[in-house]
Amino acid sequence: MSPNTEVAAYMGMPHALLKDIQYTLLNYDTYKDLSFYQHKITSDNNPNVKLPDPAENSPSRTMPRERVLICGAGVAGSILAFWLAKHDFQVVVIERSKAEQKAGQGLEIEEPALKVVKAMGILEKLNEVRTGEVGFNLVDEHSRSYGIFEVGGVSITGALELMRGDLTEVLYQSANKYINVTYRFETTIRSLRQTEEQVIVDLENRNNKTMTVEEFDLVVGADGVKSRTRELVMGSPEQLNCYKPVGAFVAYFSIPKQDQDWPYSRLCHFTNRRIIWLRPIGENSAMTSATLIHTRDDVAALRGANAAGDRLKQKEALAELYSGLGWETPRVIEQMMRAENFYSDELVQVKLQHWSHHRVVLLGDAAWAPSPFTGQGNQLAIIGAWVLAQEMSRNRSPKMAFEAYEKRLRGYVEASQEIPLRGYAPYVFNPQTAWGIWLLRTVVRLVSWMVRVFSGTALARMLPDRQQDDFDLEIEQG
Ligand SMILES: Cc1cc2nc3c(=O)[nH]c(=O)nc-3n(C[C@H](O)[C@H](O)[C@H](O)COP(=O)(O)OP(=O)(O)OC[C@H]3O[C@@H](n4cnc5c(N)ncnc54)[C@H](O)[C@@H]3O)c2cc1C
């Protein structure tokens, strides 16, 4: 097969055929001679054409490595796909949602996870899609402010705030550029069995209801808190006793933007531990992000609706919970009933004895969901993907790779899972009574005054060091 074939493909061959040719090329020594054509056919010029990484020409690239299935194209799944592609693995990523489905609201990236996205060369792209939220404003039912915290320092607003859908889109585009990565949307795992040498997986396409049986060397479950991979390989959450509820429910959705929604996020407390938090999505966006947080675990209707996965019932239960409240609540609840990107669940942490079983390994929320109260879910997904790719590339044996991955990360993950204030943060920051809310607002007013006097950064430095900032990514050896 000559390089000319690939050029011909670029001129208009069907995409599937082109991919076959590209896969064949990957197995030939001619691969290295393609640099001239690589330059001409970069995926930036034509997103339908995928090429090997032009920056790397190591001899090992002529010999493709193991075939890996990643279940879940969330943050963890796509970052892992990117780095495994760089290390010459053959990667198939399956995602149960449609490609265009961009669910979820705000996520933050900070150090040390920021180093990983910088190393991927996507920081500029992420900056282009960041929400632009400039700070956080705690308000009461009459929209009076109790404290404004500009981005950075002690503010909840991080330097790089992104909508989950924008982040996963950038990650997907970055990983999908590689010839040795294939994404399949609306696809899920039906069943899997492991042999000494392989994992045999039944894959189901939810769109055309077809089943295929495929063999992989390794499988990664990056399929979130309710991981199907985990269930198939290790057992149900009940058998594993791996869900640790944090006593709160959350709902995320978008509502039409109004003038006051930009550029600060605004959070309002209500008695009986109810919060509404409105966050900007972007200056030019017609929408605003809404989060409802309810810190109680005695809500039978909501729990029942969650268990049934019934969206309408979830919305109705939340509407009932937030009925009769002031501030902008009527507007938020009315729009919630119409929101298509509504997502709600009870918040749990995932705690497992082990993250792998033979040739199958778990990553991100599937392995260790820390809950949004820690603010570490997205961070850990990024760091975990980096470490797993590193260890899979360093160790040919899955056992050694997965053990090294767990050894490096477990202590860090467990420390990150600690909910602030000895686990009481969900209650302290979401009070039950009017008096508790008054006290919280008074403390916030005092802290915001201190921030003005000392600056947010100086105040943040006075707080105890966070172990989370210290993880060694071994990035120079990565
Ligand atoms: C729809 C959605 C909305 C979210 N919204 C927010 C939010 O607003 N704020 C916040 O802080 N966190 C949110 N999260 C959680 C946050 O994304 C994660 O905590 C963090 O980014 C870690 O990501 P992850 O890749 O480990 O898991 P996830 O982000 O949960 O990604 C898992 C991926 O696997 C896919 N998947 C699940 N099961 C299967 C299956 N059987 N087969 C194939 N694919 C499967 C899911 O569709 C998803 O794309 C949301 C998660 C989801 C899935």
Write down the CATH class of the domain at 3-101 and 167-240 and 350-416: Alpha Beta
Which strand order spans the largest sheet, edge to edge or round the barrel?
Answer: 5-4-13-14-15-12-16
User: What is the CATH architecture annotation of the domain at 3-101 and 167-240 and 350-416?
Assistant: 3-Layer(bba) Sandwich
Total number of beta strands: 18
How would you describe the overall organization of this protein?
With 478 residues, this protein is an alpha/beta fold. It has a domain at 3-101 and 167-240 and 350-416: FAD/NAD(P)-binding domain (3-Layer(bba) Sandwich). 37% of the residues lie in helices and 23% in strands. The protein is built from 18 helices and 18 strands. The protein has helices spanning 3-10, 15-26, 35-40, 75-86, 113-119, 123-129, 164-176, 228-234, 237-240, 300-308, 311-321, 329-338, 365-368, 377-394, 398-416, 425-428, 434-454, 456-462, and strands at 67-71, 90-95, 106-108, 135-139, 145-150, 161-163, 181-185, 187-194, 199-205, 210-216, 218-221, 243-256, 264-270, 274-280, 287-294, 343-350, 356-357, 360-362. It has a seven-stranded mixed sheet with strand order 5-4-13-14-15-12-16, sandwiched between helices. A hairpin with a 4-residue loop joins strand 8 (187-194) and strand 9 (199-205). Helix 4 (75-86) packs parallel to helix 7 (164-176), helix 11 runs antiparallel to helix 12 (329-338) and helix 17 (434-454) crosses helix 18 (456-462). The longest helix has 21 residues, at 434-454. The two termini are 33 Å apart. Mean pLDDT is 86; it is low at 1-47 and 53-62. The structure holds flavin-adenine dinucleotide (FAD). Flavin-adenine dinucleotide binds at residues 71-77, 94-97, 103-107, 164, 188-189, 222-224, 228, 252, 343, 364-365, 372, 377-378, 381.
